[in-house]
Design goal:
The protein folds into two domains: 3-108 and 225-256, Rossmann fold (3-Layer(aba) Sandwich); 140-217, DNA polymerase, domain 1 (Orthogonal Bundle), CATH 1.10.150. The protein has 265 residues and is mainly α. The strands form two sheets. Strands 3-4-5 form a three-stranded mixed beta sheet. The chain has a two-stranded parallel ribbon with strand order 1-2. Helices cover 50% and strands 8% of the residues.
Length: 265
């Protein structure tokens, strides 16, 4: 089985051919059960099934293809791909650089600031910093607090029972942060949202869940990976290595021809 590998290699090649980046990094997830978030909350992502063996094998081959394409690839048993991306983004921001996050994971909108961009490549939806508030109702900085309040069923993050996305957005539009909400629960009744009179009591009852969820929703920015521009620089594809790899995997000519075009960029 090489269908996932082929789809990934085609995506990566198309991305490189389309954007011709000077700097690019791919971040991989290593495990559903070994990140630091699993230590905080044992049920984190427990609703997801482990991938089948043939898919795990293809993930390994995807890393080999990435490196042969001249692209830096990072992965960690203790941190997720989100955290690797966040750490790289933070390193770039410290150097006065902007970045584009290429992903379908809306959680990563929290990284975007002025000059940066979130790009859902599959649907070609691109969001700049102001677009995030227009789309989600809160600023990028507030996304982790919104997820902590409303929960995230995809990652099995509990949130506050009975608080959905609309209520979470209304609370953050009024108070700005999760900490500010819990500093002034008496004022929750003034929020323009259904059930506001009893909402403060609900938030107080489940504060531990909200605080726990907030520890899970924020992207870590301290993964031990290189964040220099040199470490992120795109190098030319290693055509002999790539050809040998594709021979081993039984991959046809289309990806090889694309790699040759990339080598000429």
């Amino acid at each position: 089985m090489v269908n996932a590998l082929y789809g990934y290699a085609r995506f990566l090649g198309d991305l490189l051919e389309r954007t011709r980046p000077q700097h690019v990094v791919v971040a991989f997830d290593e495990s559903l059960t070994t990140s630091f978030r699993n230590e905080i909350y044992s049920q984190y992502k427990a609703n997801r099934e482990e991938p089948p063996e043939d898919l795990i094998w293809q993930f390994v081959q995807c890393k080999r293809v990435t490196k042969a394409m001249g692209v830096t690839a990072y992965a960690s048993n203790n941190f997720e791909a989100d955290d690797i991306i966040g750490t790289l983004a933070c390193g770039l921001r410290e150097r006065g650089k902007h970045f584009v996050v290429v992903t379908r994971d809306k959680d990563l909108t929290q990284l975007v600031r002025e000059g940066d961009e979130y790009w859902d490549y599959a649907s070609n939806k691109r969001l700049k910093y102001p677009d995030i508030q227009t789309t989600f109702g809160v600023r990028a900085e507030q996304i982790p607090d919104m997820l902590a309040l409303a929960g995230d069923s995809v990652d099995n993050i509990p949130g506050v029972p009975g608080v959905g996305p609309k209520t979470a957005v209304a609370l953050l539009q009024h108070f700005d942060t999760l900490d500010a909400i819990y500093d002034d629960l008496d004022s929750v009744a003034k929020v323009n949202v259904r059930g506001a009179k009893k909402l403060g009591e609900r938030l107080a009852k489940h504060e531990d869940l909200a605080r726990l969820s907030r520890r899970l929703t924020g992207v870590a920015l301290d993964v031990p990976v290189p964040t220099t521009l040199r470490s992120m620089r795109w190098r030319a594809p290693d055509l002999p290595a790539l050809s040998e790899l594709y021979d081993e995997l039984g991959v046809g000519q289309a990806l090889r021809e694309q790699a040759k075009r990339l080598a000429r960029i």
